[in-house]
Write a structure and sequence with these properties.
174 residues; alpha+beta; seven-stranded antiparallel beta sheet; elongated
Length: 174
């Protein structure tokens, strides 16, 4: 009399089922973390006085941002390093002119920038037409900002999210 068992087949089936659940769980965690609002801690003074060094701010992740408009504050990815936080100054199709004194015109009209302190204006001069699908970004503290005047325009895929709510950091910390 021969006795056979399917213990080996049953064990393999359980193992495959467990692996499937682990993969589904990992994908779920990645999707949830990509879609939920996140937070960013500011390092530096390039967005002063709007955003403060060491302040923590809420960010809407890229999948939920329909479009970026002039004046939006975006978290961007540039040159394979840590993310920058900059203000969108011009969008695709805009003719942008920035003088050495920091005066900004878009399509021939002066840009009103109440968020830039007079002492923080200045820097490199720029005169370009922003390509479609691209953005020109600058820090609010123009004298202390590395931005599109240095690394050029950025594309939509480089936008990681939009800053929407200030959580902490009401006063500047040194």
């Amino acid at each position: 009399m021969q006795v056979t068992t399917n213990g080996g087949a049953c064990w393999k089936s359980r193992r495959l089922t467990m692996i499937k659940y682990i993969i589904i769980a990992i994908i779920g965690v990645l999707l949830i973390s990509a879609l939920l609002p996140s937070y960013i801690r500011i390092k530096g003074h390039s967005m002063y006085p709007t955003l403060h060094n060491r302040g923590v701010y809420r960010v809407i992740p890229r999948p939920f941002v329909k479009e970026y408009k002039r004046g939006d504050i975006a978290v961007i990815y540039v040159q394979g390093i840590i993310p920058y936080t900059k203000r969108v100054i011009a969008v695709g199709g805009d003719r942008l002119r920035v003088t050495r004194k920091g005066e900004v015109t878009i399509n021939g009209k002066p840009l009103k920038e109440p968020y830039v302190l007079p002492k923080n204006r200045g820097g490199k001069a720029v005169n370009i037409v922003v390509p479609d699908g691209c953005y020109f970004v600058m820090g609010d503290n123009r004298c202390a900002s590395t931005d599109s005047r240095d690394f050029g325009v950025i594309e939509r895929w480089q936008m990681l999210g939009k800053v929407i709510l200030k959580e902490r950091g009401k006063c500047q910390r040194k």
